[in-house]
Design a protein that fits this description.
- The protein has four helices and no strands.
- Helix 2 crosses helix 3 and helix 3 packs antiparallel against helix 4.
- The protein is mainly alpha-helical.
- InterPro entries: CBFA_NFYB_domain, DNA_Pol-Epsilon_Subunit, Histone-fold.
- This is DNA polymerase epsilon subunit 3.
Length: 146
């Protein structure tokens, strides 16, 4: 676990970006207010994690999953966030699936490429053999004529 309470705080850059996105343009926030929001966010994350962990333990699991977090949100009486969280989770999963599919397609394309290169080489070799046979045949015909 963390040695100092400050170690549990979220990165200031992340907190600042979230605050800027949430506030209207031209509104500033003091350093103390940013620090307070950072601490509050950290406490919220720890509490939500603890509640989610309880659901995992009830299920005799050591790994927290999305369902545990959603159940924790309901238990913490943040029901109004459950639907947006589910939508965000679905969007994340679709994005991950898209990335996985793209990676899989690239892998398949790479596997196919050597095959097509091999086919090209085979075609070239066949063409060379044909040309050699034709040359040999022509030489034989010339010898027969002479």
């Amino acid at each position: 676990m963390a040695e100092r309470p400050e170690d549990l705080n979220l990165p200031n850059a992340v907190i600042t970006r979230i605050i800027k996105e949430a506030l209207p343009e031209g509104v500033n926030i003091s350093k103390e207010a940013r620090s307070a929001i950072s601490r509050a966010a950290s406490v919220f994350v720890l509490y939500a994690t603890s509640c989610a962990n309880n659901f995992a333990l009830k299920g005799k699991r050591k790994t927290l999953n999305a369902a545990d977090v959603l159940s924790a949100m309901e238990e913490m009486e943040f029901q109004r966030f459950v639907t947006p969280l589910k939508e965000s989770l679905e969007a994340y999963r679709r994005g991950q699936k898209g990335k996985k599919d793209a990676t899989e397609q690239k892998r398949k394309d790479k596997e196919k490429k050597p095959d097509s290169e091999e086919q090209d080489k085979s075609r070239e070799e066949e063409e060379e053999e044909r040309m050699e046979e034709e040359e040999q045949h022509e030489e034989e015909e010339e010898e027969v004529e002479n």
